[in-house]
Design brief:
84% helix; 6 helices
């Protein structure tokens, strides 16, 4: 009983206190809310450190296994993770070397992933059209193809401007829909935890 009861009570009390501290202009609630939010940030930092340690543990076990595959990839990942952590701890996040790594590695990598994502969307749309012939499938392929076409330099600036305006409008509308979905999902999940319906902190 105490394995789930005490964590659930603490989560409900802290969640309600923080929620009421944001909704009601009562000084005592605001005073209590601030250290609770800071404590949650500290717990999140410890969770990030544990996740980092878990990544190191998993890849170290892969390196020392006799029949391990992709051992070189694990070595490269651990070396890059350790070097990045050391550089950030020594120079800070705004250091010259750290910013050079961000500009030379992270940003090109993100661009490559975005390009792969766009091509994957087109291929997925084509498969979707072959299995489910619907207006939404055609619209999906059209938007993905226009997004790809807008990223290619062409000699028709007026046509490109029209395509960019359409793509921007579609992207903004889709982003707003995704944000609304994320907000609603976050609110529902938070309420379920505050009301004690879900107990992820106690394994329930």
């Amino acid at each position: 009983m105490f394995r789930w009861f005490i964590p659930t009570v603490l989560a409900v009390v802290c969640g309600l206190t923080v929620l009421l501290g944001y909704l009601l202009p009562i000084p005592i609630l605001v005073t209590i809310r601030t250290p609770l939010v800071r404590g949650a940030a500290v717990l999140g930092s410890f969770a990030l450190v544990l996740a980092y340690g878990n990544v190191i543990k998993v890849h170290l076990s892969r390196i020392f296994q006799q029949q391990a595959k992709n051992r070189i990839a694990s070595v490269v990942l651990l070396a890059s993770a350790a070097a990045s952590l050391a550089l950030v701890l020594v120079m800070g996040a705004d250091g010259a070397v750290v910013q050079t790594i961000v500009r030379s590695v992270l940003i090109p990598g993100e661009s490559a992933l975005l390009a792969i994502t766009a091509v994957t969307l087109v291929l997925t749309g084509m498969r979707l059209l072959s299995t489910r012939k619907h207006v939404n499938s055609v619209l999906f392929i059209a938007v993905a193809a226009l997004s790809l076409f807008s990223a290619i330099p062409v000699v028709f600036p007026r046509v490109l401007q029209i395509i960019l305006e359409f793509v921007d409008a579609a992207a903004i509308g889709g982003m707003r829909g995704l944000l609304l979905g994320v907000v609603l999902g976050t609110v529902v999940t938070g309420l379920r935890i505050i009301l004690g319906i879900d107990r992820p902190h106690s394994g329930g």
